[in-house]
Amino acid sequence: MIRAALAALLGLLSMTTAEAGCRQALALGLDISGSVDATEYRLQRDGLADALSRPAVRNALFSTPGEVVWIAVFEWADPGQSHVIQPWAALTDGAALDRVTARLRGGTRPDFGPSTALGSAMEAGAALLAGRPDCATLTLDVSGDGPSNTGPRPRDARRAPALAGVTVNGLVVAPDAKAASQLESYFRAEVISGPGAFVERADGFEGYADAMERKLIRELRSMLLGALQ
Length: 229
What we know:
- This protein has helices spanning about 1-15, 40-55, 55-60, 95-105, 120-130, 155, 175-190, 210-229; strands at about 20-30, 65-75, 80-90, 135-145, 165-175, 200-205.
- It starts with a helix and ends with a helix.
- Helices cover about 45% and strands about 25% of the residues.
- Helix 2 runs antiparallel to helix 4 (about 95-105), helix 2 packs parallel to helix 8 and helix 3 runs parallel beside helix 8.
- Strands 3-2-1-4-5-6 form a six-stranded mixed sheet, sandwiched between helices.
């Protein structure tokens, strides 16, 4: 009995990428509208790379052998404007994660318009997640430093069939407590939806990496607990 159990465990740990299941598909949308300057743009992209590289996030990503997290990252601004920075990648090990963070730290900003189309961003994220129907959990993260001011309303976008079964979380970026409180309330009322949805707050773009780390750990751990239960 013990030998059989050990053999089964070793078989699980030695699963190839092709055999591994998808625990979670995580699509992250970054706001690059006109309110985000060149310095803030780099703080956002580098902050995401930094958060993904931190030990607590890495541990959460690789906590379940044979159950892989897939990640995709896109930027958004005006209605219909989205740019995929990182196509879907399976985070099977540290080397795969390092390739993603290197890609985030490179690249240049696309020539997008100045407005903030949160609803369109959610539609772009939904289209990305449609490419991962084999994953146990689908999560869309939308970062933003202001409310939507053009395009489809976020509350309408989140009701679309394309986001059925998707958890939509938000990361708000604000310079002070008052602005953060207002933007958090807006995201709760208009943007987030699905099981366990929540809003995380970054204290300006300087605090983006720390906020992203908190958000990723919360998402990844909640999915792990759900799988164990």
